[in-house]
Amino acid sequence: MHNLAIALANKNHTITGSDDEIFEPARSRLDKYGLLPKEIGFKKENITPDIEAIILGMHAKSDNPELLEAQRLDIKIYSYPEFLYEMSKDKKRIVIGGSHGKTTITAMILHAMKTSCIETDYMVGALLEGFDVMVKITDSAKYMVLEGDEYLTSTIDRRPKFHLYQPNIALISGIAWDHINVFPTFENYVLQFKIFTNKISPKGLLIYYKGDKNVSRLASAAREDIKRIPYSILPHIINNGITTVLWEGKQYEMEVFGQHNLANMYGAMLVCAAIGINNHDFLKAMTTFKGASKRLECVKKNNHIAVYKDFAHSPSKITATISALKEQFPLRRLVAVLELHTFSSLSKEFLVQYSGTMDKADRAIVYFSKEAIELKRLPMISTQDVKEGFARADLQVYTQTEDVRKAIMEEKWQDCNLLMSSSGDFCGINVEDLAKEIIAD
After folding, report:
1. CA Rg value for the chain
2. pLDDT by residue (tens digit) across 351-367?
């Protein structure tokens, strides 16, 4: 939301906003653009008849005093994705959907478009190198690239966000059950992607990962007027910890790695080809792509140790990132640390979905906060519940961050990598400081 506020302020709109808590980096960035509220909290007095429109974030509840006042005054209310569609309805919309890889694929497309000097508007779920903001809206760009989140739109609109974008070009990277508080069964979750494919514009394009049977099934059932292009994993070799893509007799040495990223790259390449970017030009651009923030991001490394942090939290993401590190560094041990932070991951009935996900790690550590469970108003889980869910006898499970830090520092780090995975912050563990300490030792 704060990125959208900045994007609209950059278009010379008058923007105000409210929240009950504002964290970094949003606080500093809003302050930089003169958009930081003078007071924290929601007050109906902030809503006046001269306001042209309200953009409602998912955080606001249905009894929010500002929302109620806007409804009373009959002010136009947009959800976040609804407004993005309104700003892009005259553009060619490229929407990236899927349970995993959305941010990375979107980032790859944006990097290639920037390298090719193709102007585009966008919305992406992470801060990218070379991009000042995560949302850009202009009057001049012919394209808009949108990360298509399947979570709900707002408290008064229970549709998944990506149902509102009506893509001209759509991509689906994979389907793995998530958000069980909203989609109580896997079948219901898959249905949202079926609806998404039905929202593709007439004579539009669907690009899909053929290695996922559920995605392939949806693609085969898509409307007859939709062109469908499957993708898999780019051909490649790995030598001395470096992944090189092989394409039509040429080699491209990449900074990102892992089969999931090589599939992501193939999908992004097909999207870019659809808007006129040559495959070799795309792959050349990818040689300078360093990845999206917190997506298998290298924090610090030397010749014997590398510390990575990753946003991965769902079972499919954990499996992919652990596999990527073991394939890239087969002679090094891997210590994988995961924080259970989302509603799904902290739900006892969902824990079985993590069975086997950390098996390729030489040492596996899981952390969860009892306070986070209480805040989400979920039934409490135990360390034994977690061990049974992951189905790994030697799994180490902790509920205190000091115990996690102590366990990490007990490791002998020569020829060993560390992966820190979470959609949270391990209740304050600074991964950058931890990496410096490990490598210094």
Report:
1. 22
2. 999 999 999 999 999 99
